[in-house]
Amino acid sequence: MVLAQLGEGITAALSRMCRATVADDAALTTCLDDVSRALLRADVRFESVRAAIHNVKSTTNPSTLPPGVDRRRAVHKAIFAELCHMLDPGKLPFTPTKGNKPNVVMFVGLQGSGKTTTCAKHAAYHRRKGFAPALVCADTFRAGAFDQLKQNASKAKIPFYGSYTESDPVKIAMKGIDTFKNERCDLIIVDTSGRHRQEDALFEEMRQLSEATKPDLVIFVVDASIGQAAFDQALAFKKSAPVGAVIVTKMDGHAKGGGALSAVAATRSPVIFIGTGEHIPDLEPFDVKPFVSRLMGMGDLRGLVDKFNDVVPDDEDNDELVPDLTGDFTLKTMRQMFKSVQRVGPLGQVLSMIPGLSARFMEKGKEKEGQAKMKRYMTIMASMTRKELEFTNPSTLMTESRIVRVARGSGRPLRDVAEMLEEHKRIAKALSKLPLKKLANNNNSRETLKVLGNVLPPGMMNHLGGMHGLQSMMKQMGAQGK
Ligand SMILES: Nc1nc2c(ncn2[C@@H]2O[C@H](COP(=O)(O)OP(=O)(O)OP(=O)(O)O)[C@@H](O)[C@H]2O)c(=O)[nH]1
C-alpha cells in the first residue's frame, strides 16, 4: 500500500529534522518540503497540501510558540493535526442503531469500484455487531449484478432480495425495503447500479432512488487506485444523492490512497471503512487518529486489539479464532493468532499496528514468505499434544524426543520445529512488553496514547523528547480533540 510509503516519507522527514543540530527555519523548510513531496506523491490534492503546510508553518513559528515548547515537537504535533484535519470533515456519520426502526443504507459508486462486494462486507460486519441486515439488489444495469450480490449474500448468510425480470430499480428497491421491514430486519442495504464513466443517466437514477427510498445514509464507494479523479467523482455523486459517508476500497493493493481520501474533501463526509481485500471480512472501520498514528509510524495498539476482538466468525470454530492476547501466550494462542491473522488480513497489515514488531517478525516485502511460514508452523502445531500447546513455557517442555515425534508427525524437518519454538519465544517476548490487558479494557483514546508511549521504540521516544515530551504532546493533542 503506497500510503505506507507516505507514512515512511513523513517519518523520515521528521527524523531528519530531529537529527538537525538546531530546529531553525532552514531545517523546518527542508522538513516541510519533504512532507509536501510525500503527500503529493500519495496523490493528495495540491490545494490541500498547500493549505496544510501553510498551517504547520504558522502554528510552529517561534514567535507564536508558547515559551518552553520544543519546536520539533510542535512540528510533529502540527503535522499530526493537519493530517487528521485532511481526513476529518468534522462531522459524525449516521450510525445505524439496533431496534424497531429499520436503518436504510444506499450504496453509490462507479462500476468496478467494489460497491457490490462492499455491500456484502458491510452487511456481514454489522451482523457480527448484532444487527439483522438484509441486502437489496437495485442494480438493473449490469447483467451479472443480481447473481453476484446473491452469491455474496448467500456466502455471508445474509437475506437477499432482487429480481431477474423487473427493470425499474426504484420498484425493486421499494419492494425489497418493504419485504425486509416486514421481516424485522434492522439494517437494509441497497446496492445500486454503476457505470464505467460518470453519466447523466446514472446520476438521474441515483436521484430517483434516493428520493423514493429516503435512505438514512448514502455511502459513496470509491476505488483507492483512481487517484485525483476521486475528487470530481465524489462531487458528482454528492450532487445527485445526499452522500453522508465514504468507503475507500482496495487499500490492500498498490493504490496511492491519498487521492481517494480527498473524496472526504469533496463530500465533506467521513471515511467510515476501508476495504482491504476481496473477501467478506476484509473491511476495516476507519478512525482518523489511529490511522494517522500508524501513518506516522506510531503503531495502533488499540486497533490491533479491536481487530482481533472483532473477528467473531460464523462457524463453530470461535474459540480457535479469537486469541486472548491478554493471558499467557502459549503455542495454542500463537496458533489462534495465526488463524486470526489469516482471517483478518495480510500479516504485515496487522503487525504494522504493533510498533517495532513488524520489523522483527517479518521483513517488509516478504509477506508471502511470512504467510508460508505461518502455514508451516500451523502444520507442526497440528501434530502437538494439547499439553504441549497449552504449556506456558513450551521450550522447557519440548525435549528432543518430543521434537522428533512432532517433526515425524508433521512431516517437517527437526529444524523447522526448533525454529517454530524460537519464533514463539520471540513473539511472546514482544507481546509481553505490550500492555494489551490495559488497552483491551480501555475506551479512552488519550489513555490509549499514554499506554502507547510506554511501548514506542526508544528512537521514536527520543525524537519526541522522552516521556515528558510525549506527555505534553498528548496533552496538546487531547486539548485539540475536545
Ligand atoms: N483487492 C481488493 N479487491 C476488491 C475490494 N473490494 C472489491 N474488490 C474487487 O473489485 C472488483 C469489483 O468489485 P464489484 O463489487 O463487482 O464492483 P461494483 O462497484 O459493484 O461494480 P458494479 O456492480 O458493476 O457497479 C471485484 O473483483 C472485487 O472482488 C478490496 O477492498 N480489495
UniProtKB/TrEMBL annotation:
Q: What is its main location?
A: cytoplasm
Query: Any stretches that span the bilayer, and where are they?
Result: none
**Catalyzed reactions:** GTP + H2O = GDP + phosphate + H(+)
Q: Where in the cell is it found?
A: Cytoplasm; Endoplasmic reticulum
* Record remark on domains: The M domain binds the 7SL RNA in presence of SRP19 and binds the signal sequence of presecretory proteins. The NG domain, also named G domain, is a special guanosine triphosphatase (GTPase) domain, which binds GTP and forms a guanosine 5'-triphosphate (GTP)-dependent complex with a homologous NG domain in the SRP receptor subunit SRPRA. The two NG domains undergo cooperative rearrangements upon their assembly, which culminate in the reciprocal activation of the GTPase activity of one another. SRP receptor compaction upon binding with cargo-loaded SRP and GTPase rearrangement drive SRP-mediated cotranslational protein translocation into the ER.
Question: What's the subunit arrangement here?
Answer: Component of a signal recognition particle (SRP) complex that consists of a 7SL RNA molecule of 300 nucleotides and six protein subunits: SRP72, SRP68, SRP54, SRP19, SRP14 and SRP9.
| The protein's name | Signal recognition particle 54 kDa protein
Which source organism does the UniProt entry give? Digitaria exilis
